[in-house]
């Protein structure tokens, strides 16, 4: 793999991250209402408000504030939340593990289900129209529809899953090293906490993962179908290799490009879906934080969260790009 | 044969050849159903004021009544008819999505055309900007933009349009590049036909089908995004009947009066599903395999 | 090929099944543990639990379990009762207050409480300049003639001073040792106290993470009656629907607020649950903007707007049995309704203007959204042109910064900080008052309010305030919509509800019993 390729990607990554920072800063400075008063709180005297205004550098020219902003972000200072009165960075640090755990679980589901369903349906001879439609229909379910239905049916009516929160145990089930309940509970040898957390994780993760999983399956299926028709596949069959070997051995590797691209796009949609899923299931992560911040017009919190989520997305996509290049050598030339 | 890249959210790679036949027999049952559904939805959306049994903003009964004869989907927490609100909500969602796709596609068309025809540094600059836009998570940025502008329907639509156009720009630019290398284009340019007419008569007819297909497969995803933003509180303010907002307001009552949240939620599903199926169908019609 | 996939799928399904069963086994039910009561909050405690800073509502029961004020109120009344002060005297000129402190009071960190500690706490509250610091604005000096006596001298008489000290935001006594040991630079230990506690209350804080949970445990060296229940645990459950479900399933024991009146009947039907309603000083209010048109200059427009908004119908529609339509200028807990009746705005009439009126409401309160929607319908029926605007609490407090640009009308929920008319009339009606959101500035009213505050004789003060209340009501600046009850839902196994009307969303933790 050429170094040029990696460096090219890295530079691109940095440029996009810089663009993200700038966009986020501009959005933060556009807001009409007076932030100083909101920070100072109810019943604050004029001098306290004026003091706050100085602190926030509201009267400085835009460029100065931009430079200070970049400096602050580099040091990990994302300003203070109006709602919680704590540094946004602290709020995000509290919320991030929960979201990452949810995202990770969803991505696993997307990958596994997408792969299995896509591969399985690619080889089916009959009913391809039905399959195609079902996949598309399933992928059209909006996150909040699925979440509400799941909550209502699977939790309320059938009682199969719990609602709300990451775990039943109070206080915090496990004071773990990572903040991921699944990992921490295993690390501490608390098996029922592990299962309890998994049980709580199931519904939100499935809700978040269903549409992307089906879309990935669709993409893989169509990719596979074209691959399976191609010459090398016919050659492999002619050589006597079983259909299974053809599929898993050759066609799959050549078909991953399309689905991986979809995956990248879907990831963006999932990040938006995070806010909805966390709101419905009361999952205390970044998404819920964003929803709360929208409700309280907490601009520093929203732009801080947008920055973090945007950065996660951009970096993850860059990683996917590199993975794609590893998998499909044809892409390595495209810097 | 040109391949469109990047691929639309969830759709298989689109291959468009020079020859196209509008052969309806190629459509499966589902795609046809989708197209019929879309037509129906458009009619319903247009006719909502005529069809709706009650004023969607008016208290017409006791709060939180179950579905019955006079209120097909019951009443909400202020005594308004859920069914009527749903009809109006469909109208808003549908036309909003069409508007965003329309404006986004037009803007993307413009950018893509200019980049594709001009080439050179103009192309590079425009595509770099487009790529940066594509690299960022659109729906997330849209949330931030909508908050910055203030919660209203127009601001949310603007926010979404702003993050939506890069994809169209990319696609159109690719198609434009494919067209400009063809002999008839060169001939026209050499004959001295000016930039604007060049674009109008020689490029646009070539890229339009692609644009239409892209827009139609994109519509479903857009409907979902808009509904999601409305669910989070970014959209038309109360008491406007917006499907996402209705679902969000009904969340509190989900376990005791479920229809308030579930009805709009299911309608969004139907809208997005129909749009996706119809989009698939349209693409099949224009596709050359 | 298909065979392999089928077997894989079977394995996956089996795994899910196992997990489901395993998960089911660990469902938690709080009912077995009678020594722990679990309460839910909808959100983090904004700004933390430093009593000199805290000025919201959710979190107050927790703070009152950890800290105490010099005075308090008798349950279900507005009668002052001893707190950390066992008795008190006011000088004839109304400017000197002498408090005799309780004996043998210890802080959670072991420091004994004495008058110096009280003085340090008050001085700290003044220095921190938090939301509640206005209550000490007239404090001139504090003296400690002996360890059991605190003498506070004011710059002028303040008829509400005792009530300020009984307020749920009243100055709390904090361990000076803790403040000294945990101060960072000159922050007066604000950082430490936002997440830790060192008070005198019946509970001590054993665990606090900003995102929850919060754990309180009985303080064994409490000077008064020990707390009934060993442990109180708070978790943050953002959705009220979810809170109710957890209450039904036994994961939670008590919900002190957020319950929609329309949920009450189904809650009462459940044999495992009980719903208690308490008179409380919670009032949604319709405020008209005096800094812009049309209400700034046209009294008839104001009266017409209030008449056409049909506030009694709004109260009925939105709150049902859980509130009484407002009939007085000031909540009846503070002044008897008959002494300050709301004037009658008259019958509904044609809107005098076609100007678009923006009606703002607090977006986080669903009852206010409903009230705004219902109001809009009544108004539009009379020809008003009304547009609704959802504003966050912060945005609503921002109105005061530039009222001319704020909505022409707004609905917000207000509650008096203490059981004294000064805590309602002053902040709302005084020029520059902390709750004067939409630019009222009436010098005559200001004078009357100041005079009432400085009246020494109790009865005269009450009379003065009643007059102010009547005057204020006729301005139609802030008209009450309803007087809401505190609605509390709990498991049937919980008893010992001790509620003070002006401590809203609060039941005294130390009195709660779980069978």
How would you portray this structure in words?
- The complex is a heterotrimer of chains A (335), B (289) and C (515).
- Helices cover 75% and strands 0% of the residues of chain A.
- Chain A has 335 residues and is an all-alpha fold.
- Chain A starts with a helix and ends in an 8-residue tail after the last helix.
- The relative contact order of chain B is 0.17.
- In chain B, helix 5 packs antiparallel against helix 7 (195-231) and helix 7 runs parallel beside helix 8 (243-250).
- Chain B has one domain: MetI-like (MetI-like fold), CATH 1.10.3720.10.
- Chain B has nine helices and two strands.
- A two-stranded antiparallel sheet of chain B has the order 1-2.
- Chain B has helices at 29-51, 82-118, 120-135, 138-149, 153-180, 183-190, 195-231, 243-250, 259-286; strands at residues 2-3, 15-16.
- Helices cover 68% and strands 1% of the residues of chain B.
- Chain C is α+β, with helices and mostly antiparallel strands.
- Among the domains of chain C are: 48-194, Dipeptide-binding Protein, domain 1, CATH 3.90.76; 282-484, Dipeptide-binding Protein, Domain 3 (Dipeptide-binding Protein, domain 3), CATH 3.10.105.10.
- Chain C is 30% helix and 22% strand.
- Chain C has helices at residues 2-25, 60-66, 115-128, 161-166, 176-182, 190-195, 240-249, 264-269, 299-309, 311-319, 366-381, 393-398, 422-429, 443-453, 458-473; strands spanning 36-41, 71-73, 80-82, 85-90, 96-101, 139-146, 149-154, 203-208, 214-218, 231-236, 254-255, 273-288, 323-325, 356-362, 385-391, 409-414, 478-480, 482-491, 494-495, 513-514.
- In chain C, the strands form five sheets. In chain C, strands 11, 12, 13, 14, 15, 16, 17 and 18 form an eight-stranded mixed beta sheet that branches.
- In chain C, a hairpin with a 6-residue loop joins strand 2 (71-73) and strand 3 (80-82).
- In chain C, helix 10 (311-319) runs antiparallel to helix 11, helix 13 (422-429) runs antiparallel to helix 14 (443-453) and helix 14 packs antiparallel against helix 15.
- Mean pLDDT of chain C is 89; it is low at 1-5 and 19-28.
- At the A-B interface, helix 1, helix 6, helix 7, helix 9 and helix 12 of A face helix 1, helix 3, helix 4, helix 7 and helix 8 of B.
